[in-house]
Structures are given as structure tokens and as C-alpha cells.
Design goal:
Four copies of one chain form a homotetramer. Chain A is an alpha/beta fold. Helix content of chain A is 22%, strand content 22%. Chain A has a single domain (2-259), classed as Metallo-dependent phosphatases (Purple Acid Phosphatase, chain A, domain 2, 4-Layer Sandwich), CATH 3.60.21. The first copy, chain A, has helices at residues 11-28, 49-57, 75-78, 128-137, 157-167, 214-221, and strands spanning 2-6, 33-37, 62-64, 100-104, 110-117, 147-153, 173-177, 187-188, 194-196, 237-244, 251-259. Chain A has a six-stranded mixed sheet with strand order 4-5-6-7-9-8, with helices on one face. In chain A, β6 (147-153), α5 and β7 form a beta-alpha-beta unit. Chain A is globular, with a radius of gyration of 17 Å. Chains in contact: A-B, A-C, A-D, B-C, B-D, C-D. The interface between B and D is small, with 11 and 11 residues. Bound molecules: fe (ii) ion (8 copies). The site of one fe (ii) ion has 7 residues of chain A, from loops. One fe (ii) ion binds next to loops of chain C.
Chain lengths: 270, 270, 270, 270
């Protein structure tokens, strides 16, 4: 099976990249499943139902979020009825929405997606490691599900890499999001799980992590600053591509994908 | 001019990569200047005079450090007399050592290196932005110095990228260290400064940011854990290569370098 | 000389306490100078010119602020022309307003007030210790000024107490604000500076640090919560009273003041 | 019932205060139960079995700890067999020791003690609020237990006060520790729970939170500093006294206790 995970979509520039390129990538890469992190798609802050629908229309199967999940308050009204939109698993009991789900694919295979938040340098939350481990005990790769993605939305590289190693052999891919910068460490870990510390954002890299650069620079050098708005230059679509073994669900191949914009382009050689 | 900046050297495995590969890289890449981040070279914690000397012997010109600068106390005894070993610039007045220096190259050109610490999610320190700006006012690229590297040793991608944009046009390269994971965002910014959010470590990537993986996993899941030790598998040497314009000192080309170990290899095509 | 420093005034309830009690306290305590922290006086967030004027009218001489200084944007328009309203000293160069000032009293004596922000668990800022030390070199207690208050607006008790000890002998009082809870550690340090870790707020203590309690509880237990508003019950006015030696400006006596509301009342026995 | 909770005992000076004063306080205050926070009793870092035994000998019934629980490694060897020594409840599953316990008193009444860690500005841990709530569902005050103390070992006043309000009516006393500075906000909350944001330390207040002051000052002003050691002057014993209603277990009276050393003394008027 082949699937693609696209990192934090940043505003209009990032949405444009998703809407224009996903249909073609489904073709050229022979994708069976596409997941997108949408937490910054609504002008940098959150996501709306309209954006979700636009993403589904071009072939996105599942949308993850992160700490910006609730920036657009309307999400709370529909997330309970929309299993294709995930929020972090380790939010407190009673939080709307869900943190993982098993999706039936067109060919009846099952794909598992979960998202957790890291805790280093972030808000206090329950332990994502043991929580994920308990969930995965009931969704065994190669037995209950054919493919499995875990997104760790986190600040610290140490926490993300620890999660990759902790889950190695139990899911197809552990990938990080939230830093908005793609890492160059795609690898298959010793027990067969593909891993990349951060997928990177889909957005304009002539910016400060996707935001028009003057205001963030002000924030680091002055006490008073303006409002953050997404940079509007052409986006680089940043994603991770995985091909799994049909039997085990583990990774046979992992490759970064970077298309358009300012970054050095790369696509998997199939 | 061509120069190379190698990221945090992690323990024995990382040192081996530097000692074995720098002589050859100087040749094949035609390097004029080589800088290495050595803050984790002594079994993961700090650096010793012996390690410094071994690095100089194979062609390293300057060694940077970071928050681990003082882990080996002997450093305090010799850093004042060793301009080739830098510590962060924005440490309090009275801290031993220096945070920047201008190096005379063999052909009489001058190369500027500075290191600052970021402040987001890190210890309280003085503002690295305005401090660097004041220093650079006196060391103008293309007038006073022929090449210039600024290392921002920081946790947050936003702070690193803001520094890149803030200094764009004033130095040859702004590169981050400390996260121990190379980023895939090498680019030349609009005003001619090369930039990469993190150089990545020189170390074993079957690990948690270079440490043998069992103890870091314990630290994220238990309250009591063992001692961190560097992973001992083969290192990937991670670096950033820059070729500058002889006139301006700005970047004509930037490329990541990744050699050996588990990561996808890349070297500049010259 | 006798002066009083009142802690963070929280919303309407806190303002009421100040407006009603300061005139009388000036009398009964024989106060020569009154300083109030006003950073939460405008419905919990910032301060307005109208509130400043109301405070001056009842006998407040100087108003300090803190991290909430700019919550009401109008402050930026008048703070440059209003030396009686201070913001933290260690904000970046170019920040409107001032961080310290020397006030001419009616009897021609001079009173020094400075405010700094702590850095532990707070935003990155320049070092408040060395910055204050440099300022105090030019405003020597007993020579240039007759009384001196330093407010350290900070989270960590360690940083506040270190500041007290660091400045011991150089000012009349070091007092902390920001935690909104009065501490019971008023003392005169060995070299003559009065000290209290936190003055406490002027607000309703049937609350969570002055805010109506249901929303803060939600914030600690749920992911989604409402808007913070000040609790509206009767305030306890919390302050520190100091009597100085006329010769040296050092403290002869220090006492907490707590009046009204739910806390155990205390006033200095003169 | 009357009980006393003494805050963080700091090194030799703090131990001396406990050993000398507890026997007498049991008498004069007519105490039925005494709890002491011992996390800093072993030269500032952790506690030993020998210190525990010395405390039991003078009439301490239960010892709580905090983030310094494991500083003396020997604790791990005996804490599982010593219910009188508690560690924070919200440590990960598998951590040695226990976070709460019900103690049989000499007169067969039962006393409940629990300790949790806060999460603001502290290490990532599971939610102390919901965890305590679940425990208290099984230990109902006035039905299952006659008295109940919850210690919230935390940095932020907001988190401590939110815990007090959250548990109001379900325990006899919510008291904070860890800041090492007593707060002056003892009160009985609307539903009958006594509350004080921080008990304060038992230690020398001519210090920086109990440590000899020169090194902490260095830590705030320099990059390199010496080793922390407890200040050795006379301690102030800081505690909270509560008298409960025999029927309900709720508080009839709460009072701070401060004895000896530099702080203003206070004892309950009975
Ligand atoms: Fe994001
Ligand atoms: Fe995020
Ligand atoms: Fe490092
Ligand atoms: Fe580092
Ligand atoms: Fe405040
Ligand atoms: Fe504040
Ligand atoms: Fe403590
Ligand atoms: Fe503690």
C-alpha cells in the first residue's frame, strides 16, 4: 500500500498547493491513502468545514490537526460527527472529536490514523506514549489494520524521535508535525516503522515558519508587535511518502516529498 | 569561497565521522574553511582540549559549542586563550571565552564566525538579535570580512528562521544547531544569505537524538531512569556546504551534506 | 519616610478597594508616598488613562504594571508623556514608556521607583539584575534619593528572593508582584532592605488569582474553556508598608497590610 | 480534630526546627495528626530513611515529598514498604511508592493524605485534578475518612488555587508546597475546605528559598556557578494548622504557624 502524509497546510498558499497537487500525486505516486495536517489552513489558525470539504474533494482521506485545532470555533460543532477530522488523542476526557480512527478503504483494507500532542515545551497533557500503546494493543498492524500512521505534533525532536523508537514495529509510519520545517531524517527504523521527525509545512518558506516575516521578527526583538498573517508566496508542498509491505503493514520504503516553492525538490523514485 | 559547517558531533561515533571524513571532504569539495559544532563530542557532554586538537589536526578551523559548552569543566581553563573555540555570544558579561571571532585564512582572507543561543524554551539570556546586529555593524561582509557564519543554537524553528531572515544579506550563512536533526530547508534567502534551520548532528540516527534509545524512552514514560550515553552505531555526518561570491561574500550555492549511517545521503553537485 | 506599595489591582473589585481605602490609609499610616500595581485594573487586563487618573485623584503617586502593561492599547499613546506610569525596565530598547523614574515629593525629597520582569517561566528578556545594578549606580540611596522601591514582577520565588538579596542595602524595599497571592515573609534583609516575595493582589480571593473561578478550573481540566473575567466579590487590599530611616533611606520597619475581603487582616502597629 | 502540615524542611536547619518543635506543638496545639514535607531535608535534596525515622520519633505521622523525592536514591529501596512516606500521585504507572494513603489514627479515626504535582512550569505529568477526583470518590470525607489533606506541590499560584477551589468541600485542607515561601492567604473556602497557596519552608529565610544566597545569585547573573547548599542560619518553622468539624471533617478554623528565625511569628489563638 502507498500513502502520503502532508504537513501543516499554511493559509491560502498552502491550500492552493494541496488542491492543485493532490489529484496528480494520487496518480503519479499510485497513492491508496492521503492524510493532511490542516491545523493552519484557515489563514494560519485552525480549519473550517468548507476547507475540509475542499480537501476531501481533491482526494484527501483524513485531516489531522494539533494545538490549533479549535482556533476556528465552528470545528466544535461538527467534529463529533466527522471521523475524517482528528484532534490530538491525549486531550482531556470530554474534549469534542476523536484522536484516532480506523478507516475503511475502497478496497476494504483498513487504515489506522492517530494523532498525539507532545508535552515538552507545550501545554500539560496526559502521557501520549502509554495512551497510544494501549490503543495500538487493540489495533494490531498486519492483523487488524493494513496500514497505520501516528502523527506526533510536538516541539522537541527528542520527544518525536523517542515516539518513533517506542512504536517501532507497531505502525507503518511515525511522523512529526508542528515545527513547520521538514527534517531530512527519513528512515526505516530497525523493526520496520518508517520515521521522519517533522513532515514540514505546506506553505511559503520565504517567511518565518509560514508567517509573513516582518511581524515574527518584531516579536523576537520588540515588546509590541502586529498581527501574524500567512506569507503569500508560492508554497512548497512537504510530505512523507510510504510504501508498505502488504503482509505486515510495515514500511518497505519511505521518502520525503517536496514540491514547488523555494526548497530543494524531491519525489520518490518508484 | 567554499566552507562547510558540521552539526553537533555526538560522542565517539560522531568524532569518528569527523576525523575520517573531513580530510577527504576538504579535497573533494575544495573547502577553504571548516567549522564544527563540538558541544556533544565528549561522550555526549561538552568537549575537551584533546578532542579540539584532534579536530584541528584533520582540518577543522573553528569549533562552536552551545548549552553544553561547560559540561567538561577543563574548557574553562583554556577557552580564554583559544580563539578557535567559541561559546555563545549572548552569555552574561564575565563568562569565559568569546562568542565571535574573525579568523585570518591562509590566503589572508578573513572569515567571521559567531554563535548565539536562542531563548524560546531555553535558559534566560540577553537578546541575541540586537547583540548580533551590533557586532555585525563592525564586521561588514564584503568590506571587512570575506565570509561569515552565524550559528543559532536554539530549540524553536520560529526563532531560528526569524534569525535567518533578520540577518539576510549581512552574513554568508545562518545555520541552526541543537535539535540534532537535519532540516531539509536549505535555501538562499532573498538578500543572499544561505540558510538551514538545523544542520543536524554527526552521530548515530538509530537513537534518540544521538543517545542510546532505551534511556530516553524511559525518560518519557517513567519517572525514574538511567544515565544517557551516546548511541554507538555508525554516524551520519551532517553538514551544510556554502559557496560564496568572492566579491560580496553572499551565498551563490547552499547544499546539505549527509554521509554515512542511516540517513539518505546527499553531497553537493559542483 | 513612610510608603505603601499595593499589589496587582484586579478589576472593579480591586479598584474599589484602592479608591475607598487609599485616602484613609494615607492618613492613618502617615504615608508620604503610595505606589500601586495597576496591570490588571481594567477588567483584569491592563490599565486605561481613566483608571490612572482615578488612582492619582485618591492619592496614588506612581503606578507600576507588568506583563499586562499593553493589554489596553491606548496605554501606548500616553505612556511616553506620563512618568507616573511605569512599565518593566528590561523590555527591549524602543519599547514605549520607562522602567524607572525619580519622583520629586512635595517636601522636595526624591523617591526612586523601578520595575523589572523576572525571566524564569516568563518571556525572554534582558537580564534584570545587571540592568538594575547599573541604574542604581546612578541613583544611590541616601545620597541621590531618599527612598527607593524595586518591584520584581516575576513567577519564581527563587528569582524574586535572589533579587532581594542582590539589591540588599541599595534600596528601601524589594517587593514582588504577579503571583497575585501575598506572601508572609516580610523581613528586613541583613543590609537594611525591606523585602516581601509577593505583595499579593487587591482583589477578591474567592477566585483563582482574582478571576471568577469556574473558567480557570475548566482551563486546568478541559481543553476548551470560556473567557476569563474578574471575580466580583469584595476585595482584600494587599500591600507592603515600609518606614525608612531618614538618613540612609534603608528600612526601619516593614509590615504587610491586608484589609477587607476574605484574608486575615493585618495593619502595621505604629 | 486538629492537624498540622509543615512545609518543605530544608537541610539541617529545617530538620532542627522539626525535631525541636514538633513535640511541643503536639502538646500546645493539641494536635491529632502531623504531616511534614521532607523533600529537601537531606542537605536540600531528597530524604533518607534515617531522617524519616527521626521525624517519626518526634511525632510526625506522615511525610510528603515532591519533585525532589528521588534525589537520595535509597528512597526507592524502601518507599514501597513505607506507607508513611508519600510521593506525588500523578507520577507514571510503575513509579515506586504511593501518592495517597488512609492512616488509622490511635483513636481509630481515619486520616487521608494525598500529594500531587502541578504541571504549569513543571515536568509533564498526568492530570492531577481528575486523578484526585477519582481517588476522592472512594474516600469521602465525613463518611470514609475523618480528616483529609491534599498537598499540591506546584509552581504556579493559579494551579494551586484552582485545585483548592476544585476540591472545595471534599477535603479538610488543600495546601501548596514547593515555592518555599509561605503565603498569607489562609482561608476557609465557601464549601468548607481550608486553603493556603503555599505552606512555606522550614528553613533559614536569610537565603534564596533556603539555599545559601551567593550561589543562587550567581545563577541568575552568570553562566557558570557553584553548588547549591542549604543556608545554615536558624529556621522559621512554617506550617498550616487546621481544626475540623468532627461530624463533617470540614474546616472550622485554619491558621498559619510561623515560629523562629526571621519571619513574623504567628500561632493560632485557640
Ligand atoms: Fe502547525
Ligand atoms: Fe502546531
Ligand atoms: Fe547538541
Ligand atoms: Fe545544544
Ligand atoms: Fe497581575
Ligand atoms: Fe503579571
Ligand atoms: Fe521543596
Ligand atoms: Fe519541590
Amino acid at each position: 500500500m502507498r500513502f502520503l502524509y502532508c504537513g501543516d497546510v499554511m493559509g491560502r498558499s498552502g491550500r492552493k498547493a494541496i488542491l492543485e497537487q493532490i489529484p496528480q500525486l494520487r496518480e503519479t505516486l499510485g497513492l491508496d491513502f492521503v492524510i493532511v495536517n490542516g491545523e493552519n489552513s484557515a489563514h494560519g489558525f485552525g480549519i473550517t468545514r468548507k476547507i475540509c470539504d475542499a480537501f476531501y474533494d481533491v482526494g484527501v482521506d483524513v485531516i489531522t490537526t494539533g494545538n490549533h485545532a479549535w482556533d476556528q470555533r465552528e470545528v466544535m460543532n461538527f467534529i463529533d460527527d466527522e471521523p475524517r477530522l482528528l484532534r490530538p488523542l491525549n486531550y482531556p476526557e470530554g474534549t469534542p472529536g476523536r484522536g484516532f480512527h480506523v478507516y475503511e478503504m475502497k478496497d476494504n483494507r483498513r487504515f489506522f490514523v492517530a494523532q498525539v500532542m507532545g508535552r515538552l515545551f507545550m501545554d500539560p497533557l496526559d502521557d501520549p506514549f502509554t495512551m497510544l500503546s494501549a490503543v495500538l494493543d487493540k489495533h494490531v498492524l498486519g492483523r487488524d489494520v493494513h496500514g497505520a500512521l501516528v502523527d506526533i505534533h510536538a516541539e522537541a525532536t527528542s520527544e518525536k524521535m523517542a515516539m518513533g523508537q517506542y512504536l517501532d514495529g507497531r505502525v507503518s509510519l511515525v511522523a512529526g508535525t508542528h515545527s513547520h520545517i521538514p527534517t531530512a531524517d527519513a528512515q526505516i527504523l530497525p523493526n520496520g516503522t518508517a520515521y521522519q521527525t517533522d513532515v514540514g509545512m505546506c506553505g511559503d518558506y520565504d517567511s518565518v515558519i509560514g508567517m509573513e516575516k516582518s511581524v515574527p521578527i518584531e516579536r523576537f526583538t520588540k515588546k509590541i508587535s502586529g498581527r501574524l498573517t500567512p506569507a503569500e508566496g508560492p508554497a512548497t508542498l512537504c510530505a512523507v511518502f510510504v510504501e508498505t509491505d502488504d503482509e505486515t503493514g510495515l514500511a518497505k520504503m519511505v521518502s520525503p516529498v517536496r514540491l514547488g516553492g523555494r526548497l530543494i525538490e524531491i519525489t520518490p523514485t518508484l
